Amino acid sequence: MGEIVRRFGRSAAVVAALALAAGSAAACSSSGSTSGGGGGGAGSGSFKAALKNVHATAQTSNSIEYGDTAQVTKLNGGTTEGESGPFAGLLGVGADQLRGYSELLPEHTGFDYTTGSTAISFGTAPNTVQVLYGTFDPAAIGAKLAAWGYKSSDRGNGVTAWVFEDDHKIDMSKLDPSTGVGPGMTGWLNVVWVSKTSIVYGGATSDLAAAVPAQGKALADDPVVGPLADCLGSPLAAFVITDQKQIQNSKVSAIALGVTGTSASDLRMEICASAPDAAGAQAFATDFTKAVSSGKDLITDEPWSHLMTDPKTSVLGGANHIAQLSAKPTETRAGSLVVGLVEKNDFLGLLGLPTPAARVPAGGTDTETSPTSS
User: Fold this and answer.
1) Which interval of the chain is the signal sequence (predicted)?
2) CB atoms within 10 A of CB 177
3) Pair 180, 260 in one domain
4) What's the Cα-to-Cα distance from 21 to each of 16, 18, 74, 263, rounded to whole Å?
């Protein structure tokens, strides 16, 4: 499940990109193409609004990460203040690789994750496409990228495509060996589309043109993603997983996890889990309450009640059989709780299901652990 979230995968993403560079170059995608239009457009303001500008495909819908950058930054008191506060763990969600290099990249690119008001990434590596929405200066950003060796082409509708390696090779000689920073980075910043309202960037084989703008059907209207987004409401951060290879349990058709709140006092963890049938959704609600009240995290061996309290559930029903689950984090860094659940592949235990990424017992081997195990 390491592909699901790039937040914890900066080193993993670098390794994957280096492996890609070592092999033959991938076939060209349309990400650097001058044909077609658009790619800018609206999309900022909320999770559902951000999804309205993304074309619904199997690749874009299987894994989504969203962050309300402006609101999280405001609640956290800035991007460097309050590092131990409840919102610090949500900084950079949706733009994790940019945040990982936030002290090094801006002088070369003219932007970083704090430049946007919202951030969203979708798809799995190496085909991940990421978007910053906000207000940008295309001329200033273009000057930086040109100086760094990127070549430009006009996509129309106020969008300029900047491409470092159009054949999708990674020029390792351009990377600073001490920092790993260089044009194209390790492939994930190979193509950058810049407009006044958005910055879209992608990896070595990302197909930006097939992802944005929405073409026919948007992710907001996708029959699986749309209801999950409605269930989450207006999150500060959200993660959506629809790919069974990532979920690793057929009893969960799709799942969304998020954080909502307007202050530390009303911060809530939200889980919206879609089941194959109504009975499965009801089971999620029952088992979630039981887990929070008396269960334990089988990866950390810590009672769930130490991490969250005040469980609330509602079975929304509908064709997707969604169970809406919520709890109040108890940790100081409350915003990190949901991020940790996704990072550790640890959310299934809260639904009463076996945890595939269970701890390895002393002297034992890797096993699937049941939430009823002692």
Assistant:
1) 1-27
2) 9
3) no
4) 9, 5, 39, 44
Strands (E), 76-223: 118-122, 129-133, 151-156, 159-163, 191-194, 198-202
Query: Is the N-terminal amide bond of 227 cis, ω within 30° of 0?
Result: no
Inside any domain, residue 197: yes
Please give the pLDDT value at position 170: 66
Cβ atoms 308, 329 nearer than 8 A = yes
Could you tell me if residue 337 is inside a domain? yes
DSSP H or E run through 343: helix 336-343
Alpha helices (H) in 190-243, listed in sequence order:
208-211, 225-232
Nearest to 64 by CA among 44, 37, 94, 87: 94
Token pair listed for 194: 């810049």
Going through 109-260 in order, the beta strands assigned E by DSSP cover 118-122, 129-133, 151-156, 159-163, 191-194, 198-202, 237-241, 254-260
* Structural domain includes residue 356: no
- Do 185 and 320 sit in the same domain of this protein? no
Q: Do 261 and 308 belong to one domain?
A: yes
The answer to whether residues 78 and 129 belong to one domain is: yes
Q: What percentage of the chain carries pLDDT values higher than 70?
A: 80
pLDDT in tens, 124-149: 888 889 999 999 999 999 999 999 99
Predicted TM-score (pTM) of the model is: 0.84
